[in-house]
């Protein structure tokens, strides 16, 4: 007997809940089926988490239905322009969040906020978004985070965030916070062309009543499918961040272990560490290959050591590469934020490689191709 519902069962439940039937384009059904099968086969979750996990899947299906209903009532959304975007990607824990938070302070960028992703309809408007119930709920959730959680990962309510929900609505997201190793094996090699076309469809909706049209994206997982992303956004340009993988892999393993729902028993952290190391390594191999076909001129490489040691120079270099004016007021705002949120300002994230069955020497050996290719500095 299956513990989790089938894809068809969830589709029927979402349709009944929303009173709608059109889920929109794309191959999301394939991803949903693989995800549910992997959860059934690979999952180790405490049964008490089942309602919340499946509830998220159902919510995303309901969101799909509402998106199509909105398009039906507002066909002009199809003609909404999407400029750019500028996309920040790379390994996680390399400064992607800090850099995204900094650039999000520039009002010329339209940010992909977490609170609007979780429920895209109705799209926000400038007049009422400050008190939008979705935004207020997001703030309340962040205020309940523990000091340890804040030290591990910074969250700004109106900064651009990872497109976890948009890819989740397409059921072609990374799903790193669930124990679904088999799904991730499938996802790494999946064709996300239609996924990112759907991504653009939701982005148009979100931007339809809330300018500007120049988008700023940020997601380390984009490195796995850069060509599919570029197919959906032909004018996209990429800022790729880099750091010593011996720092990155255990830090990310620690973060993932802390945000994955509780297990039924004791979770094997050594297995988790090995999976994460192999997963991220695969993403870099995908990215290096994709850069060859997309053209290196579309990528700017930013090293974590540069961002920490010289934030002003790094930001100026990014703006010069983009061909954007960096006004004194925006620069001051960015640098003030950076100073207030520099490394360690919210506390220290403590972890070791050994907790996750890893070692500094082995990680660097496994990632030697990456260190050499991008001239990544090894940290002491």
UniProtKB/TrEMBL annotation:
InterPro entries: P-loop_NTPase, Stf3_sulfotransferase
Gene Ontology molecular function: any one: transferase activity
Pfam families: Sulfotransfer_3
Record's keyword terms, sorted: Transferase
Keyword Lyase assigned: no
Record keyword Nucleotidyltransferase present: no
Name listed for the protein in its UniProt record: Sulfotransferase
Organism: Pseudofrankia inefficax (strain DSM 45817 / CECT 9037 / DDB 130130 / EuI1c) (Frankia inefficax)
């Amino acid at each position: 007997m299956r513990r989790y519902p089938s894809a068809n069962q969830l589709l029927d439940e979402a349709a009944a809940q929303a009173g709608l039937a059109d889920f929109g384009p794309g191959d999301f059904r394939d991803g949903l089926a693989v995800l549910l099968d992997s959860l059934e086969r690979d999952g180790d979750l405490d049964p008490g988490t089942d309602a919340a996990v499946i509830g998220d899947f159902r919510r995303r299906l309901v969101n799909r239905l509402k998106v199509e209903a909105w398009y039906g009532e507002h066909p002009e959304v199809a003609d909404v322009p999407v400029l750019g975007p500028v996309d920040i990607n790379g390994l996680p824990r390399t400064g992607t969040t800090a850099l995204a938070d900094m650039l999000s302070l520039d009002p010329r960028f339209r940010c992909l906020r977490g609170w609007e992703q979780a429920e895209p309809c109705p799209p926000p408007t400038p007049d009422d978004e400050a008190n939008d119930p979705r935004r207020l709920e997001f703030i309340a959730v962040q205020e309940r985070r523990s000091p340890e959680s804040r030290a591990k990962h910074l969250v700004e309510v109106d900064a651009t965030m990872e497109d976890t929900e948009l890819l989740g609505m397409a059921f072609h997201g990374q799903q790193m916070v669930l124990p679904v190793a088999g799904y991730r094996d499938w996802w790494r090699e999946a064709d996300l062309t239609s996924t990112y076309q759907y991504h653009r469809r939701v982005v148009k909706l979100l931007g339809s009543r809330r300018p500007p049209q120049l988008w700023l994206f940020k997601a380390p997982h984009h490195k796995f499918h850069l060509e599919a992303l570029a197919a959906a956004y032909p004018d996209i340009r990429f800022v790729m961040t880099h750091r010593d993988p011996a720092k990155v892999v255990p830090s990310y393993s620690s973060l993932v272990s802390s945000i994955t729902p509780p297990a039924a028993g004791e979770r094997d952290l050594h297995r988790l560490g090995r999976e994460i190391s192999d997963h991220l390594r695969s993403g870099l191999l995908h990215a290096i290959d994709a850069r060859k076909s997309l053209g290196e001129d579309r990528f700017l490489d930013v090293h974590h050591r540069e961002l920490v040691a010289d934030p002003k120079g790094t930001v100026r270099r990014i703006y010069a590469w983009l061909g954007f004016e960096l006004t004194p007021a925006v620069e001051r705002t960015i640098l003030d934020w950076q100073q207030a949120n520099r490394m360690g300002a919210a506390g220290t994230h403590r972890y070791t490689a050994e907790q996750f069955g890893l070692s500094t020497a082995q990680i660097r050996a496994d990632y030697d191709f990456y260190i050499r290719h991008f001239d990544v500095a090894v940290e002491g």
